[in-house]
Write a structure and sequence with these properties.
Layout (H helix, E strand, L loop, with lengths): L3 H8 L12 H5 L3 H29 L5 H25 L6 H7 L2 H36 L4 H26 L2 E2 L17 E2 L2 H29 L4 H33 L7 H18 L6 H5 L1
Antiparallel strand pairs: 1-2
Length: 299
């Protein structure tokens, strides 16, 4: 079935008719529905598990720590990012590149670029807050071990430095500074001197993967080195299970960023990338919330 906006683009003469593979059916293809369903499912599951975490900390343990406070703020940022992802999908950012070029109007294309710019600033900040929540938890767990406290502070400085690099790469991807990510066929591209989308995102994804390795190496070291009670070692082992999933998700995001930049129809992979990014934040929050479920399970 031909989409209404595609039919209108043909009626307006905006779609070239001399390219054989660009047909109304091709331009109408969409993976928006599954992407929206996946994002909402991940968000709802993460929210339910975070509510369980906060209920456990407030009503059973009766102690709401710094790590819990940062996690709550991370969830608020996560909510904003999830909403921006839905906006991007509804605006057509995950459709074929020819749909973006020929069906969307230039103001609509620029709007998707600005929303993408804002969304990934929020995404970068949210992941950083999630990791800081994890470090706060690890600090509370081994507060009496000075060597580990120093190691965790060092990890904190590294994660902060990586976050600043990621944030400023997005913020200053063009000079003068703009929220646009101009395509080669956009006339606005001549106004700005920009780093390509792929270089920014692949660089940030690589840094993010390194940060995940750094963060989730801490519980491995604690299990191996510290003389912890058996219960605490079990808790740290449980943190590692979803932690390994987070690292796998980071690898998938890196691959999608490479594909999105260096394949001709890169925008077709954008919806899966958004789902992966939502999953990365959600799994990080869940992984670092696992220890808080122990009091509930004990009851």
């Amino acid at each position: 079935m031909v989409a209404v906006d595609v039919a209108q683009a043909y009626a307006d003469g905006r779609v070239p008719t001399n390219i054989s593979y660009i047909t109304p059916d091709y331009l109408s293809e969409s993976r928006d529905g599954p992407a929206i369903a996946g994002i909402l499912a991940i968000y709802i599951i993460t929210t339910i598990l975070l509510i369980c975490r906060f209920a456990s900390r407030i009503f059973i343990v009766k102690s709401f720590g710094l790590d819990d406070g940062i996690a709550a703020f991370s969830w608020a940022c996560f909510t904003a990012f999830m909403a921006l992802c839905l906006v991007l999908i509804n605006e057509g950012s995950g459709r074929h590149i020819e749909y973006i070029q020929y069906v969307l109007s230039m103001p609509e294309v620029e709007e998707t670029e600005i929303v993408d710019f804002a969304a990934h600033l929020v995404y970068t900040a949210t992941l950083y807050l999630c990791r800081m929540s994890g470090l706060a938890f690890f600090t509370r767990l081994c507060s009496s071990h000075p060597t580990f406290r120093i190691s965790i502070w060092a990890c904190g400085f590294f994660l902060t430095a990586a976050f600043l690099v990621q944030f400023f790469l997005i913020l200053f991807h063009c000079l003068p500074v703009t929220g646009l990510w101009p395509y080669a066929w956009q006339t606005t591209g001549r106004t700005y001197k920009c780093i390509t989308w792929g270089i920014v995102y692949v660089s940030n994804s690589s840094l993010s993967l390194i940060c995940d390795f750094v963060l989730f190496s801490i519980p491995i070291a604690m299990i191996a080195i510290l003389q912890l009670p058996k219960g605490r070692k079990i808790v740290l082992s449980l943190v590692m299970l979803p932690g390994m999933l987070v690292i796998g998700i980071s690898c998938a995001r890196l691959w999608l960023c490479v594909v999105g930049q260096w394949r001709t129809d890169g925008s077709w992979y954008y919806n899966p990338q958004l789902v992966i990014e939502v999953a990365e934040i959600g799994c990080t929050l869940i992984a670092l919330s696992v220890p808080s479920y122990k009091p509930i399970l004990s009851r």
